[in-house]
Amino acid sequence: MERKYIFFDIDGTLLDDNPGGKILESTYRTLDKLKENGHFVAIATGRAQYMAMDAAKEAHIDCLVTDGGNGITLHNELQYIKPIDFVQANRVIDQCIEHHLPFAVALGNEAVLYTNQSDQKDQKLPVKLVVDESIDFHQVKEIYKVFIECSEQEEKLLDLGTLEYMRYFKGQIIIEPADK
């Protein structure tokens, strides 16, 4: 049999659609059978690598494409995550400041976001927010994602250039890769 390379998404594919998502026994059996037959089994997800690893470990999958196609993990070892375009990301951050739109920035593969705007402590973010007014995002090494609280109307104030984004929640966009 010819070896195939099979990539699974996490939400609604490996994990069922129920709140908290679980891997069904039938899914485990299918994954085991694919591996027994010599196929390469991996995950392809828009999730950040650190967020995808729990599901990967639960599914017994050790190779992943993460961060919307910008991250590679082989045998549970992170190989690389490509940041988003630095110049464009800073242009959007500057626009957020100009239009008083709350924002937070992912500077690495961690459950921490950063902002330099002290009035933004009440953002609805999925991770810890560090407020440090001394951060100059033009001077950081890399930017991986930008979370912006904005309505669909406020979104029109932003020139995102070629940056891709997702609106997972009504009042927020996340600038992140989406080419998984």
Descriptive labels:
180 residues, alpha/beta, five-stranded mixed β-sheet, four-stranded antiparallel β-sheet, elongated
Describe this structure in words.
This protein has 180 residues and is of the alpha/beta class. The chain is 23% helix and 26% strand. It is built from four helices and eleven strands. The strands form three sheets. A five-stranded mixed beta sheet has the order 1-2-3-4-5. A four-stranded antiparallel beta sheet has the order 6-9-11-10, with helices on one face.
Gyration radius, in Å: 18 Å
Order of strands in the sheet with the most strands? 1-2-3-4-5
Q: Quote the beta fraction.
A: 25-35%
Question: Span from first to last CA?
Answer: 27 Å
How many beta strands in the DSSP annotation?
Answer: 11
Shape: elongated
Class by alpha and beta content: alpha/beta
Number of helices: 4
Order of helices and strands: EHEHEEEHEEEEHEE
**What integer is the average pLDDT?**
91
Q: Largest sheet, if any?
A: 5 strands, mixed
Topology, please?
Elements (H helix, E strand, L loop, with lengths): L4 E4 L16 H12 L3 E5 L4 H11 L4 E3 L4 E4 L2 E5 L4 H14 L3 E4 L5 E4 L12 E4 L13 E5 L2 H4 L9 E5 L2 E4 L5
Parallel strand pairs: 1-2, 2-3, 7-8
Antiparallel strand pairs: 3-4, 4-5, 6-9, 9-11, 10-11
Overview in brief:
The protein contains 4 helices and 11 strands.
